[in-house]
Design goal:
Chain B: One of its GO terms (biological process) is L-amino acid transport. Chain B: Keywords: Amino-acid transport, ATP-binding, Cell membrane, Membrane, Nucleotide-binding, Transport. Chain B: It holds the Pfam family ABC_tran. Chain B: Belongs to the ABC transporter superfamily. The complex is a heterodimer of chains A (about 300) and B (about 240). Chain A has about 300 residues and is an all-alpha fold. Chain A is built from 11 helices and 2 strands; from the N terminus they run H-H-H-H-E-E-H-H-H-H-H-H-H. In chain A, strands 1-2 form a two-stranded antiparallel ribbon. The longest helix of chain A is centred in the N-terminal third of the chain and has 32 residues. Chain B has one domain: P-loop containing nucleotide triphosphate hydrolases (Rossmann fold, 3-Layer(aba) Sandwich). A 6-stranded mixed β-sheet of chain B has the order 6-7-8-3-9-10, with helices on both faces. In chain B, a hairpin with a 2-residue loop joins strand 1 and strand 2. Chain B is globular and about 45 Å long. The N and C termini of chain B lie far apart (about 40 Å). The chains are: A mainly alpha (about 300), B alpha/beta (about 240). The interface between A and B is medium-sized, with 19 and 24 residues.
Chain lengths: ~300, ~240
């Protein structure tokens, strides 16, 4: 029986959609976690955050072509994007903390244009594919006709590991305590002798690297194409708002909710799929105007 | 003298167009206790914030241990052994009591770690009962103890208390003063801003009175206590 014929689906199709929802939601979490931290702690609306995802995907394409391995590409890509993130924070974003949201939006929108133009100059405007690493290229059969690609499970696994690691850093380490404290009162953190600017730099660079990693992981399944960051940016802002600005755990819950709403929306209500995510946002905000988990 | 901890020289500070501090000179030496007095809006908190780099003076200089810190970031001043307990307390309500203390822990400037987590716990037994509570669950007095305890975790040489007992019940305030006296005995210098003139002048040996952003008195606490007219004129409500 073909999957999702309007209203009913069999168990195998249902399972596939569940796994897809989870994988999509977790991937969105990687992007949104950095966005919510930067927004919540530094008070910066970073429209270029979607570009970080795009940069990651293109890095995966370029580095995989050069090294022949997506693993190597990711291994090189993570420190590279972390360093670029730290540099961008130092050169541009650190000047925005005391500025108005309008100025932040102008600068970060300008960055989107610059990043897209650079992408066009350096890699071109064609759509590219990235091969799934051979050892993950298999599929697990679920029924006579349906199967689930191992690589998507790997993505989910990597994201879960990272979410746990992020939880550990934020809840259990002194750096995490400083980040959370800075979320509440940056002046007081500084008055305790802590260099809050350095913490901002680390958080920003981490956010960049996580968004880029999401792009690198997604490259083999979504392919690599111009402006691929813009959709991710909008959906990530939806997640940040639903989850509660500044709350990483809110972002995790919201990303999973959006992952499920979007995936099942496309299957069950294909005509209205584009609306489902925003309907969810409207309902959540009516229920909790400050998001699922409030800041902090 | 080389034992100077913190100095302001001819400091002028503005909030926008309003001129708050009119050329203030201030200094505190190692181990000294200063009662910083004056009515509301006379510039006591602004002076403290100007010296810590939380607000920037428009003219004048700030020296920390003799070095020019006029443009230094706040964290560098704090790292030179200066701890700050702000008005309105400034605990992190989204962190537990334990985390509030742990995140601040640091050796003193000379590497000493006299103030450890355990010592803060024994100084403030009430915090021990609430160690895993969130900061937002504490009463006003407990919050104040936490802020002082957190400041001590940085092993400072100078502790600045801005309105430490404001809004607290008298018994709790007395408890805070008792603890501040204990802390003073360990040799930590203190600057204390408070409305309770009797308490601050009994804890501190020196007193300064600010009126409209200028120093009108700088002398011993005894001299202030012995001069009811001075109190009535500059501090009376």
């Amino acid at each position: 029986m073909p999957a999702g014929q309007g209203t009913l689906m069999d168990f195998a199709s249902f399972l596939i959609q569940m796994l897809n929802s989870l994988q999509y939601g977790l991937l969105l979490f990687l992007v949104a976690s950095g966005l919510t931290l930067v927004f919540g702690i530094m008070g910066i609306i970073n429209l270029a955050h979607g570009s970080f995802y795009m940069i990651g995907a293109y890095l995966a394409f370029v580095l995989t072509s050069a090294t022949g391995s997506l693993f190597l590409a990711i291994l090189l890509g993570i420190p590279l994007t972390f360093i670029v993130g730290a540099f961008l924070e130092w050169a541009l974003f650190s000047h925005l903390y005391k500025r108005e949201h309008l100025e932040q939006v102008l600068l970060t929108y300008g960055l989107i244009l610059i990043f897209e133009e650079l992408r066009s100059l350096l890699v071109g405007d064609e759509v590219h594919g990235v091969d799934i690493p051979a050892i993950f290229s298999a599929s697990i059969p679920l029924s006579d006709v349906l199967s689930y690609p191992v690589y998507r499970l790997v993505i989910s696994g990597v994201c879960i590991v990272l979410a746990v690691a992020l939880y550990f850093v934020i809840q259990r380490t002194r750096l995490g305590m400083m980040i959370r404290a800075g979320n509440h009162d940056r002046t007081m953190v500084e008055a305790l002798g802590i260099n809050i600017n350095m913490i901002y730099r680390v958080v920003f660079a981490l956010g960049f690297a996580l968004a880029a990693l999401a792009g690198m992981l997604a490259a083999p399944i979504s392919s690599v194409f111009p402006n691929m960051g813009s959709h991710v940016l909008i959906i990530s802002f939806v997640i940040v708002v639903i989850g509660g600005i500044g709350s990483v755990w809110g972002a995790l819950i919201a990303a999973l909710v959006i992952g499920f709403a979007d995936t099942f929306g496309k299957v069950l209500l294909p005509d209205y799929a584009g609306m489902v995510v925003y309907l969810v946002m409207a309902v959540v905000l009516l229920w909790r105007p400050e998001g699922i988990l409030k800041k902090g | 003298m080389s034992n100077m901890l913190l100095e302001a020289k001819e400091v002028h500070t503005y909030y926008g167009a309003s001129h708050i501090l009119h050329g203030i000179d201030f200094h505190i030496r190692q181990g000294e206790g200063i009662a910083l007095m004056g009515r509301n809006g006379m510039g006591k908190s602004t002076l403290i914030k100007s010296m810590l780099g939380i607000v920037r003076p428009r003219h004048g200089r700030v020296l920390v241990r003799g070095d020019d810190f006029t443009k230094a970031p706040t964290y560098k001043t704090a790292q030179r052994g200066i701890a700050y307990v702000p008005e309105g307390r400034g605990i992190f309500p989204n962190l537990s009591v334990r985390e509030n203390l742990q995140m601040a822990a640091r050796a003193g400037l000379d590497g000493r770690r006299e103030w450890t987590f355990d010592r803060v716990m024994s100084t403030f037994p009430r915090l021990g009962e609430r160690i895993n509570n969130g900061g937002w669950q504490l009463s006003g007095g407990e919050q104040q103890m936490l802020t002082i305890g957190r400041a001590l975790m940085t092993n400072p040489d100078l502790l600045i208390l801005d309105e430490a007992t404001e809004g607290l019940a008298p018994l709790i305030a007395m408890e805070i003063w008792r603890i501040v006296k204990e802390i003073r005995k360990t040799g930590i210098a203190t600057v204390i801003v408070d409305k309770n003139h009797g308490a601050v002048t009994s804890i501190c040996d020196r007193a300064m009175i600010l009126v409209k952003g200028q120093v009108v008195f700088d002398g011993t606490s005894e001299a202030v206590r012995a001069d009811p007219e001075l109190i009535q004129k500059h501090l009376g409500v």
